[in-house]
């Protein structure tokens, strides 16, 4: 459990936000460049438990890079990412590749645009996979996975392979997989990007219910205003900088722009 | 907006003639980019190896057919048997390369259909590209063949090295081989295209695991019995030629049976492994095999043949060794030559299998790069990904190798005796062959790890 201890102090002080709850994940002065293009030019962000944050912006504004940096997928060039785990503050920036991999596996959950589930495995096996990777016996892992699938309305579809599910159903399996380990932060990259509006609505409800509804945090990168509108806060990026933080009914930030 | 601005632009010259500029489109879409380089290079390498091995084997066979020594006809018959045995893994390798080329069609369809190309145009483009890649690969294979000739020429037959020149097949044969490889690519691409099953939603339809039809069991049992009786009757005959013909037929039957029951047996073993899987990598490996036992069989069947040959050949070698003292010098030389021939055949079939596994593995990684990148992002350890990948091949490989060895053992049982199978020399040859085969394939899987590293390290650029 090396990534939970010891807590390392960082400069990543969470900026004030309207959530009034202690942050669970913070990014401070995050900078990331790819060759000559700057993806992140000093981003500060704090995400609280039980909060859902939509990250929006035009293509190339740095929103996916921000998500990858916060999730420990891509290390930033400078700045700090801090994760407040049950046992204290963890400096994600200071972790090596395998520690970050373990953090993602055990503390975070992910939902991608296409689901990206393993096509050969059944819905149940896909959902149980993170638990099996964490060392749970297969029977127990599948038992817990079953629970989540039923909770997400996929009871009776456990033995179906991913190709035998609709896009919305596959996305729910991905949500179940993201939450089966009890991840306290779930990152979703365009989770409804490949779905029609009705299915998109359902999937978003499932995603919010299984994360925020459990007191966990949700970070969503999206182009879709209706998806963003369902989150408790919208962070808009432009050219790698935060343009605005918009809470439901409240606007704050250096260059406040209301949605 | 006026009516004139809405008028469509004048048609391009190619459209006026009613034909799409397939050649130019193919060229435009084939220009190597970061993504396509590997997809084009892999089949080209496979075609090059196929061509080089085909030319070497052909050179060897032609060399024997030029001989005028006393036992020339015997050498000629044996060389044809070796050629027949090598055709199965050779076609598998060529087919793997061709299928890899044809896979590009899916990506194309999306882009080209959007700009209005018909499926026919896309098909013709893919066939054209596969054939062009195969031809380039075959030309590289000719160079490889020329480089390999002096090395293979060191092999001793009739007591002395055969020399590089003996393996020269001549310009006519080289041209024929290039044409044959190109034709194989074109036909495989065309057939492969028809077999690609994509539903309107783009979801790959599930290929159900083949069930064992009772007729397969009956055919297999009858064939084994026939071969058993046929080989058993050999003891009474002293005719070399008859022995070789019957032995060749027996081998053919064995190979046929293996192909008949192989995919089914692999599916059964995988179902068992799935039930018993305790770790993520074992679970994924078992499911990957069950996805298409036929495809798995195609990858490992070359080693199945080799292990089958190894048992038969190993027994043959020790059979001959037993009577070393009873023979005169020319006969002993003949026996030594047969042994060399057996080892060369086994080595070449291993090379072919390793090469097709390598091509298939690399293609598999590139095909599923999005999935592998997402699993990496989820925090799945790289070791689990690698373990499931190698387990999905090595499991069936071990299973097939020993299964085939068993079939081979049953078939040669009447020819020799059980004791002979366990004769030391025979055992060394057999075990050596099986271990070498598994190690070579394991090494090939390991060799494709850098492809995965590249996919995972540069997900945006792939």
From TrEMBL, chain B:
Q: What are the annotated GO cellular component locations?
A: plasma membrane
Q: Which domain of life is it from?
A: Bacteria
The residues that cross the membrane are 38-65, 77-98, 133-155, 167-193, 214-234, 240-266, 300-320, 340-359, 397-415, 421-445
Where found, per UniProt? Cell membrane
Task: Fetch the InterPro entries from UniProt.
Answer: ABC3_permease_C
Q: How does it sit in the membrane?
A: Multi-pass membrane protein
Please name the Pfam families in this protein's record: FtsX (PF02687)
Name all ABC3 transporter permease C-terminal domain ranges: 81-195
Q: Which UniProt keywords apply?
A: Cell membrane, Membrane, Transmembrane, Transmembrane helix
| Protein name (record) | FtsX-like permease family protein
